[in-house]
Amino acid sequence: MKVQFSDVSMRFGAMEVLQHITLGAEEGEFLCIVGPSGCGKSTLLNIAGGFLAPGSGSVTIDGEPVTAPDRRRIFVFQERGVFPWLTVEGNIGFGLFDMDEAGREARVAQYIDLVGLKGFEKSYPRELSGGMKQRVEVARALAVNPDVLFLDEPFGALDSITRLQMRSELLRIWRAERKTVLFVTHDIEESVQLADRVVVMSARPGRIRRVVDIDIPHPRDLSSRRYIELRDLIFGEIGLAHQV
Amino acid sequence: MKNRDHHRDTEGTEGSLSVSSVPLWFQRFLMPLITAAIGIIIWSIAVKASGTKIFPTPTAVAKAITTLAEKSLLWHYIADSLTRVFAGYFAAILIGIPLGFLLGWYAPLARAINPLIQMLRPISPLAWMPLAVIWFGVSNAAPIFLIFLASLFPIIVAAMNGVRNVPPMYLQAGRNFGLSTPQLMRRVMIPAVLPRIIVGLRLAFGIAWVVLVAAEMIAVDSGLGYLIIDARNAGKRYDLVVAGMLMIGLIGLLLDTAIRRVEVWISD
Amino acid sequence: MSRSRLLPLTGIAAALAAWQIAIMLRPSLIPGPIAVARGIGELAVRGLLVKYVVASLFRVTWGYLAALVIAIPLGLLLGMGRIGEMAANPILQILRPISPLAWIPIAILWFGVGDVSAIFLIFLAALLPMTVATMNAVHNIDPVHLAAARNFGIPLRARMRDVLIPAILPQLIVAMRIALGVAWLVVVAAEMIAVNSGLGFLIVDARNAGNRYDLVVAGMVLIGLVGIVLDLLMRRLERLDSVRWGYASE
After folding, report:
1. What part of B 117-156 touches C (C-beta under 8 Å)?
2. Residue B34: exposure state from Cβ atoms within 10 A (0-12, 13-18, ≥19)
3. What is the pLDDT of residues C238-250, one digit of tens each?
């Protein structure tokens, strides 16, 4: 297991947010964690990233326990994580401070290309759309060649059309780099579209209700029977009606 | 998105009155007491160590304050200062707020008058003193005029910006429900604008208080500002000087806190 | 002439005209715009214009820069450490309502009458608002930025240099502009009371030495003009790319 949560529990004051989470993510896997608001999924991710210490239990990555943030596992926030005072180039090259100039330039150019932002190297984030800023953040994360990527509802601030586009983009980039990805979302459709496996969490206090294997090959047809089956399965797990 | 625009000229230099995660009673009472105690001790040591004959020790200052209080001079001075500052300040409110509303509502008017405001703003209120003396003679009115001037600009700007920044959708909703313009003003604009204006009013008062002291140093013979200058000139009574400074600080802080209370009360 | 220029110019012209008419209707010691313009000319010819403006600017520059050099590091320190801020807060809150001019007797005691006193007053006037503003700016940093920097393994000192400072720069520059405005107000006031040159002194002297109210108002106009120039220069800084992002509604 690349990432292993062992009996992780967490409480904030008197409030229990996570209970006995045991979960593993394999190398190169795209794992989605889905659940209603407040179920602790973001907290879980923060613990995995080393930004929070678990109340009990532990997280190991490659066997090593996680105690602090580390550049081998990069957190992608929503587009506000991009540094507004740096250009696109500056942002993507941010983590590459121990590379020589030439190497850094080459790496930055490579990732600008990968995320499709060619031509915007010298632009500032305020000149970019939400989707573009999100791509800058992904590029910045990938440029340091981390082992694991954590994404916490990265597309939450985007409109639904952009969101669809960004999902394809993300999958394309992921297939090119094959990093282990832990992706938190409250959007069930999103999880079925993206993940290899979907971890369904309960409402607070967060527990794992079920882990669903998404056995549809990419590119996934959103109208296919299997897709709808799996989606409805997860809807049912969370307890949502199928009609509006 | 952070609401920076209306904060630009106002809150930036304002201090927060508390830090979030520590109990309030500790911050508001215990910590200031501790800091004050430490400050007084350092002050005492510094004075004794430097061997100065003029700069007062904390005890000398405390004695000076009590003597003044006994002689009832202190209360007269404070009353005079307060009267002046409130007179000038309220006059500025009476004129500044309507004017600011007008400027905020009619953009072309604002553009026309703006250069005038920009031109007058950097001129220290004290520089108006000679003109004030011509207009009002050597009397209480001159410092009041200075305070009026000093408070006027921030109040106008606060009112103007307040009106400008009312979200247009509020006004649209008002019109949608059939409100006439006077009703729109009364039932939508004024409540929407009030919280922001109060902040501007508080800052303007801070300015008024600072200018009051400066104004009293020049043309009058009572008040806290006068106390400071006179204490030095009439006999190098630095204990009175520092006493005056402390009282100015305390009273100014009290008034500021009072206005903050009003702010909180209004936004409920 | 573009429409956007027309209104402000009309406003200025109308104000000047009203002023001139008011003077002509009710003559008093106060001069009209034309007399003031002549007064400025006279100062220029006598070489006093440049001399006084430079004197005032000199004092402002020294006091202001000294304040920045101390206020910004101090504000950073206080902003980052909670204990420091809680301890300093009461002191700052007490000192804030005290007019810099109230420090004149102490300034004279420590530095005598003259330039240093004036510079000290300006230093004081700019120090407090800058410290508080820097402290606030540090508080208002989006924690996401600092978290991201830790994530990438950036060591503490580099985090301060490459993330903290750029993040607070927009607010810092606004505060610097406001502090400069305050410094300019205080220099004039200080010069009216405690020194023998500069624009503030000009106003007091012109009146005392012969009721030259045309020079008094000329002095006021000059003060206003220099103040505007200083403000505009500082606003230029706000347009730099690495800072522009911090101001809403472009």
Report:
1. 118-131, 134
2. middle
3. 888 888 888 875 4
Counting the structural domains of chain A, the total is: 2
Q: Give C94's pLDDT tier (boundaries 50, 70, 90).
A: confident
Residue with structure tokens 């609401």?
B3
Collapsed DSSP state (helix, strand, coil) of residue A182: strand
Q: Can you give the pLDDT at residue B19?
A: 55
Judged by CB atoms closer than 8 Å, whether chains meet at C142 and A80 is answered as yes
All residues of chain C having their beta carbon less than 8 Å from the beta carbon of residue B9 are 174, 178
CB A159 within 8 A of CB A131: no
Q: Which residues pair with A149 in a beta bridge?
A: A74, A181
In the structure encoding, which two tokens stand for residue B169, read together? Answer: 């959708």
Of C123, C149, C7, residue with least CA distance to C65: C123
Answer whether residue C191 shows pLDDT above 70. Answer: yes
What CATH code is carried by the domain that includes residue C171? 1.10.3720.10
pTM of the model: 0.84
Q: Provide, as residue numbers in chain C, all residues whose Cβ is less than 8 Å from the Cβ of B85.
A: none
Residues A117 and A214 in one domain: no
Query: Is B220 an interface residue toward C (CB < 8 Å)?
Result: no
CA distances from A238 to A31, A231, B65, C57 (A): 18, 11, 71, 69
Q: Chain C contacts of A95, Cβ < 8 Å?
A: 152-154
Tell me the pLDDT tens digit for each residue of C194-243. 788 899 899 888 888 888 888 999 999 999 999 999 999 999 988 888 88
Residue C240's domain comprises 67-244
Q: What ipTM is given for this predicted complex?
A: 0.84
Residue-number span of the structural domain to which A241 is assigned: 1-72+147-244
The partner residues of A24 in beta bridges, in order of sequence, read A4
d(CA A67, CA A53): 7
**Total structural domains within chain B:** 1
In this prediction, residues B117-141 reach a mean pLDDT of 87
Strands A180-185 and A148-152: parallel
